[in-house]
Amino acid sequence: MTATAAPAATGTVLGYARVSTEHQSLNQQVDALTAVGVGGARVYSDKLSGMSAREQRPGLAALLDYAREGDTIVVVGIDRLGRNAAEVMTTIRELGERRIVLRSLREGIDTSNAAGRMVAGVLASLAELELELGRERRAASREARRARGQSIGRPKALDASKAALARRMHASGEPATTIAAALSVSRATVYRVLADDSDE
Question: What are phi and psi of 109, to 5 degrees?
Answer without folding.
Answer: -85, 135
